[in-house]
């Protein structure tokens, strides 16, 4: 009896609760979807946790377009992509920004996106094949091995120059990298080694890295902030896996040039894309927002807000970036569909080697 | 009151047929009360059903019923993997060890900080509370800076070991034991212990025969929470273990967020669920010894208290070291003291603080209200065995959210709460609900043991005087559990401000809160940005501790109005 009453009350309370909470929510869009001819005011954009943009830019876009923008953050690029795959058919947003080239074909293959590409924009960074119709490149960055020149000078040691150097005894216990399974730059580095040593050779390289004392951390932040000698924490490893723009931030106060540099032969290029979600409520709004992402204003805000390079080759870079963040002419690459096909296999092998 | 009850009794006796109608009336009263309790229980149950059972069920369904057919073979395959067995074993032993150590340290510290009176006690309580509210990202990093080869504790060679993981789990959770047990201890009547001592019992004997049985429910309760926190710890395990150690929780994270292998994730979530249920089944047998509750008095420390005082001192040093490191590093740049890192945060810190506080207030109110209702129900003395079972099951249901992966619940929200009027997936309301859900079991676990210890005779006395169950609860039981309520409120606040658990895996609306700010700064290159992340953590910890202690103070002044 007791149970039966409780059972009867649960749905009632649930409905009441739902009614209360949804009226307080911000997502309610009465009459949304195709049934209503009225223009939907809100654009919901799903992105990753690294999203950062000047408030003024967004406000300006809102005023000019008549839309309001709601940004929804979803962990890292992997978590973001997988959440979109999971909610396919009932998308949590209208547009997505932040799917990178390591997850792009997964999103396209799963049918998460509908076709939209800003014509003629950032074509150099387009995905190969048909996937390009679904995603517009917005920015890119090179994940490279960085070395602390100040430390090497002080220790009278020549800094390493290549991936091969990292397994030499001279550099034992000096290298720290975020793990491939828990960090997207970490995974990019694994891809760099796969590009360099081949799908059957990288395992051997990683075995040698491990015996040469590579330190693997969970995230980029503790590799950089704790272990790296040129990070914030007085660490003890002068070689770190990070970005090619990092030297810009190692210019000492009052100094004129960085005390670290990136090894350009070790870089894997990460490109981030934006797209319209299949089944989006506000398709015109989503397109307008992607157009905004490719506009000069947003493109030029990228380096100082998200520490990446604009996909627009004509966008002006901050002076220090132009000077101290050289980019590799020929970065290491792995085809996006290869990555999608082998991700789990590679990561399982990698985990076995490193733990 | 008394009159009306007597009147009613007289009425029934004189106006109706004697025996049968009296039992009718009694039956009606009993059923009305039962119905009342059921309606009450339904409120928190409904919240747990919609925001926990539904998303969890959704994820399990996706993982185990692919294409609409139950895939038990797949389940067996996943559970049979060697790696999964290793992960399960590591989760169980590291959490058990951390829980045992936490309780062994926490109980003496609770005695010193809640039963003895000495100058500086407030400050020590504050220091003990800090670790619990620190964001895991920062604690992981702070600990690693100490343990790394070049760090001050580098000679211990603990960086990247399982010992480091256990040490940090203890660090985080001591506050849970100290506050839960401390709140119960403060309300403990000291007369039985004094009587025993007067009759010649030695101090250890008094402790094991009188005090410990009275505290056992609170200790067990705290231990359960600590174990669940340890078993579902995520960030610190990854950070401190350097990816060498995996727990069920970190494995669910990988399988879900990186591979979207929902079958493996569902199998692991089931394993987690089983572990929690087993734990609750084992611990739910700890019944309180009813005591006459009184406001226990605090005494001055004596020579015999020296050993526990020393344990407390050592604990405080252990807890304070990483915290002090954190504060110092947020203030030191290029060999000089400066508040530059704080200035760099500027207006952002204020906005973040305001956002954090406003969310926290809602989440705290919600969780404390739900916990009060739930604890009022589960602490009912059940007369029948079936009744006891129902209550025990209820208690377990409210505790489950602590023990199940935040990733599973966070992703589960996305696939189940997608129909209007419940399309809350990207709403900030969901953040509040998720926080309240994590805080609920914590508050409940602080409240229930003392409520159960309220002797039935007191309730009966109130009932005889004509008070209904609600009035009895408000005037008899509430004043007796005032301290636990406040301790619980503090916890709820801390949980919400620190954005524990499920919130990290929600689709969060872009709202600058302190944890978000900390994350942002720690993910930017350059030493200055990292220092600002540390500064923001110090602000978060300071605000949380001040609020927690403020809430307690408020209660102490309010004694007159409550009792």
Short description:
Chain A contains twelve helices and ten strands.
Give me some keywords for this one.
heterodimer, A: 355 residues, alpha/beta, ten-stranded mixed beta sheet, 12 helices, 10 strands, 18% strand, globular, disordered N terminus, B: 563 residues, mainly alpha, two-stranded antiparallel sheet, 1% strand
Task: Give an account of the 3D structure.
The complex is a heterodimer of chains A (355) and B (563). Helix content of chain A is 38%, strand content 18%. Chain A is of the alpha/beta class and 355 residues long. In chain A, strands 1, 2, 3, 4, 5, 6, 7, 8, 9 and 10 form a 10-stranded mixed beta sheet that branches. The longest helix of chain A has 23 residues, at 2-24. Mean pLDDT of chain A is 88; it is low at 1-36. The radius of gyration of chain B is 25 Å and the shape is globular. At the A-B interface, helix 1, strand 2, helix 3, strand 7 and helix 8 of A face helix 2, helix 6, helix 10, helix 11 and helix 17 of B.
């Amino acid at each position: 009896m007791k149970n039966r009453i409780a059972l009867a009350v649960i749905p009632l309370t649930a409905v009441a609760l739902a009614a209360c909470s949804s009226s307080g929510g911000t997502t309610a869009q009465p009459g949304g979807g195709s049934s209503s001819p009225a223009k939907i005011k809100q654009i919901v954009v799903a992105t990753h946790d690294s999203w950062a943009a000047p408030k003024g830019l967004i406000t300006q876009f809102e005023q000019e377009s008549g839309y309001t923008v709601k940004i929804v953050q979803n962990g890292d690029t992997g978590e973001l992509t997988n959440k979109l795959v999971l909610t396919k058919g009932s998308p949590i947003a209208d547009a997505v920004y932040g799917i990178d080239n390591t997850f792009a074909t997964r999103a396209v293959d799963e049918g998460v996106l509908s076709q939209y590409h800003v014509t003629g924009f950032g074509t150099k960074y387009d995905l190969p094949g048909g996937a390009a119709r679904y995603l517009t490149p917005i920015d890119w960055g090179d994940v490279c091995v960085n070395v602390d020149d100040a430390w090497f000078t002080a220790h009278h040691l020549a800094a390493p120059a290549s991936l091969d150097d990292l397994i030499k005894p001279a550099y034992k216990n000096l290298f720290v990298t975020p793990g491939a399974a828990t960090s997207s730059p970490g995974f990019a580095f694994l891809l760099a080694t796969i590009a360099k040593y081949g799908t059957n050779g990288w395992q051997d390289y990683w075995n040698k890295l491990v015996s040469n004392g590579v330190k693997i951390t969970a995230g980029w932040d503790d590799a950089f902030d704790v272990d790296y000698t040129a990070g914030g924490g007085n660490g003890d490893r002068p070689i770190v896996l990070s970005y090619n723009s990092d030297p810009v931030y190692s210019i000492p106060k009052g100094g004129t040039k960085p005390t670290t540099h990136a090894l350009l032969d070790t870089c894997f290029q990460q490109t981030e894309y934006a797209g319209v979600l299949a089944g989006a409520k506000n398709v015109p709004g989503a397109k307008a927002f992607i157009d905004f992402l490719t506009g000069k204003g947003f493109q030029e805000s990228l380096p100082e807000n998200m520490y990446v390079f604009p996909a627009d080759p004509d966008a002006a870079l901050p002076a220090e970036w132009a000077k101290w963040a050289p980019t590799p002419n020929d970065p290491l690459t792995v085809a996006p569909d290869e990555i999608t096909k082998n991700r789990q296999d590679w990561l399982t092998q990698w985990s076995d080697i490193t733990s | 009151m008394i009159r009306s009850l007597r009147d009613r009794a007289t009425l029934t006796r004189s106006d109706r047929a004697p025996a049968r109608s009296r039992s009718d009336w009694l039956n009606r009263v009993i059923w009305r009360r039962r119905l009342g309790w059921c309606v009450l229980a339904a409120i928190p149950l409904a919240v747990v059903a919609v925001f926990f059972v539904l998303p969890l069920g959704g994820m399990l369904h996706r993982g185990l019923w692919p294409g609409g057919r139950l895939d038990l073979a797949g389940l067996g395959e996943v559970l049979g993997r060697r790696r999964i067995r290793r992960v399960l074993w590591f989760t169980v032993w590291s959490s058990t060890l951390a829980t045992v150590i936490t309780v062994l340290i926490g109980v003496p510290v609770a005695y010193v900080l809640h039963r003895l009176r000495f100058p500086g006690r407030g400050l020590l309580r504050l220091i003990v509370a800090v670790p619990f509210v620190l964001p895991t990202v920062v604690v992981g990093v702070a600990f690693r800076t100490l343990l790394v080869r070049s760090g001050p504790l580098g000679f211990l060679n603990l960086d990247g070991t399982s010992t480091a993981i256990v040490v940090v789990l203890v660090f985080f959770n001591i506050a849970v034991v100290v506050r839960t047990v401390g709140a119960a201890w403060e309300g403990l009547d000291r007369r039985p212990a004094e009587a025993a001592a007067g009759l010649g019992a030695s101090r250890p004997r008094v402790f094991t025969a009188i005090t410990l049985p009275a505290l056992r429910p609170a200790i067990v309760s705290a231990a359960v929470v600590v174990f669940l926190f340890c078993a579902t710890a995520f960030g610190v395990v990854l950070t401190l273990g350097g990816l060498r150690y995996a727990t069920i929780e970190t494995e669910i994270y990988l399988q879900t967020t990186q591979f979207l292998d929902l079958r493996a994730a569902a199998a692991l979530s089931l394993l987690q669920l089983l572990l929690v249920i087993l734990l609750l089944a084992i611990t739910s047998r700890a019944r309180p010894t009813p005591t006459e509750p009184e406001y226990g008095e605090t005494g001055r420390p004596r020579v015999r208290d020296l050993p526990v005082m020393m344990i407390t001192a050592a604990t405080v040093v252990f807890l304070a070291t990483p915290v002090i490191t954190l504060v110092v590093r947020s203030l030191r740049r290029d060999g000089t003291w400066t508040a530059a890192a704080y200035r760099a945060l500027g207006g952002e810190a204020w906005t973040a603080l305001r956002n954090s506080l406003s969310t926290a207030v809602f989440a705290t109110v919600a969780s404390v209200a739900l916990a009060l209702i739930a604890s009022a129900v589960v602490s009912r003395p059940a007369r029948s065995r079936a009744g006891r079972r129902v209550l025990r099951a209820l208690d377990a249901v409210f505790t489950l959210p602590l023990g199940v992966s935040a990733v599973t619940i966070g992703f589960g929200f996305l696939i189940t709460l997608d129909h209007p009027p419940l399309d809350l997936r990207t709403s900030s309301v969901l953040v509040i609900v998720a926080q309240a859900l994590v805080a609920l079991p914590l508050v409940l676990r602080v409240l229930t043991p003392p409520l159960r210890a309220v002797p039935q005779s007191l309730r009966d006395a109130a009932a005889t005087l004509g008070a209904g169950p609600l009035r009895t609860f408000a005037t008899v039981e509430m004043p007796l559990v005032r301290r636990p309520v406040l301790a619980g409120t503090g916890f709820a606040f801390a949980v919400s401000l620190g954005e524990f658990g499920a919130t990290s895996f929600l689709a969060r609306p872009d709202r600058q809160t302190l944890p978000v700010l900390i994350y942002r700064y720690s993910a930017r290159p350059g030493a200055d940005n990292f220092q600002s992340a540390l500064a923001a953590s110090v602000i978060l910890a300071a605000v949380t501790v001040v609020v927690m202690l403020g809430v307690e103070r408020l209660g102490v002044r309010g004694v007159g109005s409550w009792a």
